[in-house]
Amino acid sequence: MAFVNDKLAESEIREYVVSPYQIVKDGACTIDREKNLRLYYTGHPHEDNDRHYFLFVWNETMINVSLRRNIIGNTIYWKLTGIDIPSSLDKKMVLEELENALKEYRYVGASAIKIMNNGVDVEVDFSTYLH
């Protein structure tokens, strides 16, 4: 099974405490149910609309992700600017699955504005984190 942008069944909804000020509990995400991987959008700073934060949940391990988004024509470019991968996980495998999730997430993930995801290409740049 691959990643899909989907609404979650009540039994699939989880709550993740990201910080003392932020709790992620959403009824929709980009999910690979077979591998138990989830990508949640957690926001962007008001002063920088191109920087976006995500929570990538690998089984129940939370991985905070920071990306810079650039849109040119019908292509969305995601550049990884920060990620906190625990040493217990395989870095290459995590980055590969994160890339798969972002390619399905595209622009707005499981948001109600699905039309914004149609006909969109996605390019991912993790080059600074692959060595």
Descriptive terms for the model:
single chain; 131 residues; two-stranded antiparallel sheet; 1 helix; mainly beta
Provide a compact summary of the structure.
The chain has 131 residues and is mostly beta strands.
CATH architecture: 3-Layer(aba) Sandwich
Mean pLDDT, as a whole number? 85
- CATH class assignment: Alpha Beta
How many domains, as an integer? 1
The fraction of residues in strands falls at 35-45%
SS elements, strand count: 9
Describe what you observe in this structure:
18% of the residues are buried. It is globular and about 40 Å long. The strands form two sheets. A seven-stranded mixed sheet has the order 1-4-5-6-7-8-9, covered by helices on one side. Strands 2-3 form a two-stranded antiparallel ribbon. By secondary structure, it is mainly beta. It has one helix and nine strands; from the N terminus they run E-E-E-E-E-E-E-E-H-E. It has one domain (4-129): Aminopeptidase, CATH 3.40.630. The mean pLDDT is 85. The chain starts with a strand and ends in a 6-residue tail after the last strand. Helix content is 11%, strand content 44%.
